[in-house]
Amino acid sequence: MRQGVFGDGKVRLLETIARTGSLQLAARDLGISYRKAWGDLKKAESCLAKPLILRVRGGKGGGRTTLTPQGDRIIQAFQQFRMTVERHTLTAFNTLKGELNP
Predict the structure, then answer these.
(1) In angstroms, what CA-CA distances link 36 with 10, 14, 27, 28, 77?
(2) How many other C-beta atoms can be found within 10 angstroms of the C-beta atom of residue 62?
(3) Contact 86, 38 (CB under 8 A)
(4) Which pLDDT tens digit goes with each residue over 40-60?
(5) Widest pairwise Cα distance in the chain
(6) Any idea which fold 8-100 has?
(7) SS3 for 45-81, per residue?
(8) Signed CA dihedral, 54, 80, 32, 61: sign only
(9) Cross-strand bridge partners of residue 64
(10) Are 38 and 46 in contact (CB under 8 A)?
(11) Every domain of the chain and the residues it spans
């Protein structure tokens, strides 16, 4: 996977799309432009060779954007990764603290 494909920002974007049902609303909620949000998604989808969102165009009930199963898995995997990093960081910090305060 190329550097910059995934991180907190892109995961927050996917989480917000899942919550709002809209890429445009997600971009607005996160304070980023629609163009940046769309570009970030396209970059991630290209690198992963998998779609992360499904877009249903307007119509009687209006349009909607949802996550694909791959998009959902990315969120879950990244949350697990984040918890693992936090756990290891806390362990390393406590070890260092113990060495500095014998």
Answers:
(1) 11, 13, 8, 11, 23
(2) 10
(3) no
(4) 999 999 988 999 999 888 766
(5) 69
(6) Arc Repressor Mutant, subunit A (1.10.10)
(7) HHHHCCCCEEEECCCCCCCEEEECHHHHHHHHHHHHH
(8) positive
(9) 56
(10) no
(11) 8-100
